[in-house]
Amino acid sequence: MQLTRFTDAALRVLMHLAQLPPGAHATTPDLATQYNVPYNHLNKAVHHLSKAGWITATRGRGGGLRLAVAPQDLRIGAVVRSTEPPGEIIDCDTQPCPLAGACLMKRALEDARQAFYDRLDSYTLADVARRPLISLG
Predict the structure, then answer these.
(1) DSSP per residue over 32-85, as a string?
(2) How do the domains of the chain map onto residue ranges?
(3) Rounded CA gap, 131 and 61, in Å?
(4) Of 6, 83, 89, 100, which alpha carbon lies 20 to 30 A from 54's?
(5) Integer Cα distance of 66 and 76 in angstroms
(6) Is 15 strand, coil or helix?
(7) What mean pLDDT do residues 48-70 have?
(8) Domain at 5-128: CATH architecture
């Protein structure tokens, strides 16, 4: 299973914000440049994270992005579930399949996806963003 670029961008934003010193903030343009992600793409991820209540975005002078939750309270599985598109891993319904009724692959893949999310739920943002942020400038 490969995560979407949207999920990757959202996770990077959260990890970056979790590593900032207290009171510090980041801006979407700065993050887009630092992580080499198109601004519009990163802005959509920021909007999603803000709507979810995980970050706050303040406009204007002195504004920027900050975490709205404690890193130890945010489960990575919750973030990935919210950013990955819904649907099944394999599409068995679009075309007739001679294995229909005897195939357990769809169930196996769904079990694997659930195990993947369950494992991600064992990690918090604090767990994956422990190292202090290094300056690239």
Answers:
(1) HHHTT--HHHHHHHHHHHHHTTSEEEE-STT-EEEESS-GGG-BHHHHHHHHSP
(2) 5-128
(3) 29
(4) 89
(5) 17
(6) helix
(7) 92
(8) Orthogonal Bundle (1.10)
Please count the residues of the chain.
137
For helices 76-83 and 39-51, angle between their N-to-C axes, nearest 10 degrees = 120
Task: Determine which helix (DSSP H) or strand (DSSP E) holds 129, and give its type and residue range.
Answer: none
Percent of the chain with pLDDT over 70: 94
Q: How confident is the model at residue 135 (pLDDT cuts 50, 70, 90)?
A: low
Better-scored residue on pLDDT, 47 or 85: 47
Q: Is 71 left (phi over 0), alpha (psi -120 to 50) or beta?
A: alpha
pTM listed for this prediction? 0.85
Q: pLDDT per residue over 68-113, tens digit each?
A: 999 999 999 999 999 998 877 777 777 777 777 777 888 888 899 9
